[in-house]
């Protein structure tokens, strides 16, 4: 049964794909169907791309909500194409292709899907069912010894923050002021998003704004305190409405390590059959009930149970990579987990059975075999027992417990631990595969959005900024982008970003002092230890100075803990973790490196590195495209500038002003052109013309015409002869020739303050003469344009500009300015010119330009040139 519907239509343009994704995401999140948002967005993106890009038609998107899930239909208006069916043996296509992936993804992700035709359109639909959620009851949890109870401060402070429907802070209690340092007056009325550091990780798509709209929400994020530090908190949100019906959200927040105060117990299904039979699953005997429903919770519960079972001081659990060559630390207790999390150790650490994680092993004293268990180096643990986790004979992980005393464990403890590992191995592998699937779907959605953003710009600096902003904080804590101009150039630090803006300057200074990574084209991420080592050395030197120790440990005067030392120590903590470098390879050339880093003693997950590698390939191509575009744009603009006159000459007793506008993005010269130049002593030439069309082809004829005019005029030819020879030169261009309208004239300033002009108007808008009395008249007669017929009979017309007169010459981009069916025209231009009596040439040209721009709301689509000449009036005595 359909309970809600939402529909929208998107135009056949590229930007509609992103708009359609946003429409589907907003709709499903509004319905509370966040579990299927990622899949729906990816499928919609592919199907709308097929419609608006490949089919070239509008796309209709319909979302239908049911009790069990959602159905989405994407329709286009091009029904003639065939749809490959699995039963016919036809291939859906390769996932690496840029098109044709929509149906392949439907088959992989959707619960059900299909294709339907009508006489006017074709639409593809897919159904996504909501995952089944276990229904249980809240429980108080087992009775725990005092030593295992959650740790909290002597007084637990619960910040109560109320957020109104607009996202602004409406209430802020005393505990909130104590925890975060902001008073109620300082934050009331401001957006909560101004103070939150919200986690954005692949697979987690609920943002702070979305969370505030949910009826209930729990989770972790950060609040920026008054001192600039980010304070990790655990929050419980409840959406309420007051007696007037206005909604708001009440947020309860505690320090993250006190999350047990607010965190709801996990729920699990109640099995009446199991209760009646009295049988208990061996898994539940070990792990406890209810079992955590997330991988991290399950692994953490496992190591805690293993530690308690063997009365150990520490325990750890590692998961194997897909190729079973390495083990990744995923959960520890009693060990510095921040330092160890996601660190990797080899499966085969030695030649004997005790060096392999595939077999159980007991080490009575690690002091006798240093390095036998790399994870425990420097922790003080001496005895350890490790057992493998296997599923169907395949190694999936390793579970170990350790004690500070030697000789604590024997084969009997190894057998007990192996029995427990066998009970949980399948559950752990199932949870791991579920996590990988969620991460894969979140990564796919992330890459779709990243590709869309990178494809939306050709600006190099903006591309660099996007690369960094997409990785921080989604993939890494900080990011640096190095670029390489050419093969002979060294890598250059082009962009640095840290999730804490206050750390950017210190990080940039640190990276500037060390040699950049080698531009190795080998794909994949490689560890770069230089930033961490340099940061640690700088922190050590700063610490020694604060203690009054000089080089070699010599005692000296203690230094004050100034801002510089604090910045050095903060930078060391920020970059002290793992740093990896990914090459940016485009068109078989390394054009830069993408550097990602973690804070102190932190490591990258392999899945994150694989996602970063995919992103680096897309970013490299986008960066190289921006580079090529910038280079070609610079060449184009340089060539175009060579077609413009170098400058206007100073003509005695004559004011001259030119305004030139070329149509088209990046064009400085189009089909319109102008020129004013000296011919010989006392004589000057001027021209304004319009080549048929716009863009580079028209600009080529522009250059021919302007240079030919100067050459012929200075050879002593009169106006008609100049234009006739130019006409022949244009016709000689053959298929590349274009017809040309041209107004050419020669000017002689006179001793009495006037100016004598001779003009030839070959198919061009007639020049207009403004007299001192405000009258406007055409100053020439129309004659045939150039570049059409071979034999032309042109003549020139002479007139005199008296003091105070203005001669206005324009191209048809001015007179043909349109707004709907209206056009400015010659009469409209004459009316504007009539209002310019007494203005200088510059003021006349500026008033004409304003009139043209205001005539229509849309930007001009044609080239435009305005040439104004004025004979000034003699100064009065």
Automatic annotation (TrEMBL):
Record's keyword annotation contains Phosphoprotein: no
InterPro entries: Bact_Sigma-Reg, GAF, GAF-like_dom_sf, HATPase_C_sf, HATPase_dom, PAS, PAS-like_dom_sf, PPM-type-like_dom_sf
Keyword match GTP-binding: no
UniProtKB keywords: Hydrolase
Cited Pfam families: GAF_2, GAF_3, HATPase_c_2, SpoIIE
Alphabetical list of CDD domains matching this protein: HATPase_RsbW-like (cd16936), PAS (cd00130)
Regions crossing the membrane: none
PAS domain segment(s): 154-192
PROSITE patterns cross-referenced by the UniProt entry: PAS (PS50112)
Cited PANTHER family: STAGE II SPORULATION PROTEIN E, STAGE II SPORULATION PROTEIN E-RELATED
Name of the protein this chain belongs to: SpoIIE family protein phosphatase
Annotated source species: Streptomyces pulveraceus
